[in-house]
Write a structure and sequence with these properties.
The protein has 151 residues and is mostly helical. It has one domain (17-146). It has 7 helices and no strands.
């Protein structure tokens, strides 16, 4: 076949090894999120009673849609990173959906129930890290798709 024949198979560009490393670390990161989600979902009344009253009130005031957003965020992030690791382009929309879940969850936490008042400035470090990492993963998946590292 000639070089310009579109029927010829094209070589898929090699994905840099650092992408697999980042995806694997991101899977661990998202597994920690899944554990945190499970911890909040399955907290016993005894465990809840050990928290300061303000944290108990925050937990008890969390509506189903905010819990759902948390689930979308962590399970979407996990699935997105797994699909990124196995080189599937579906990683990008899944990570975007996860990012939306994060934003909805953070909107509830910081603008509806004002978790800043309960946890103080130190309580903003983890949410900021979550948002930054989510943006970075979406950026990585976008680059991987445009570079044809994932298909």
């Amino acid at each position: 076949m000639s070089e310009n024949n579109p029927a010829e198979p094209t070589e898929k560009p090699a994905i840099p090894s650092w992408v697999n490393t980042v995806a694997a670390l991101a899977i661990v990161w998202n597994l920690l999120g899944v554990v945190a989600f499970g911890g909040g979902l399955f907290i016993t009344p005894e465990m809840l009673a050990e928290l300061p009253q303000a944290e108990q009130d925050l937990h008890n005031a969390t509506p189903g849609w905010a819990i759902g957003a948390f689930a979308v965020a962590v399970f979407g992030g996990l699935l997105g990173c797994i699909t990124l690791l196995i080189k599937k382009a579906v990683a990008l929309p899944i990570l975007i959906i996860s990012g939306v879940g994060i934003l909805v969850q953070m909107f509830h936490a910081f603008f509806i129930v004002n978790s800043f008042a309960v946890f103080g400035p130190g309580g903003t470090i983890m949410p900021i890290m979550v948002i930054v990492i989510a943006i970075a993963l979406i950026g990585l998946a976008t680059k991987a798709k445009t570079q044809a590292w994932i298909t």
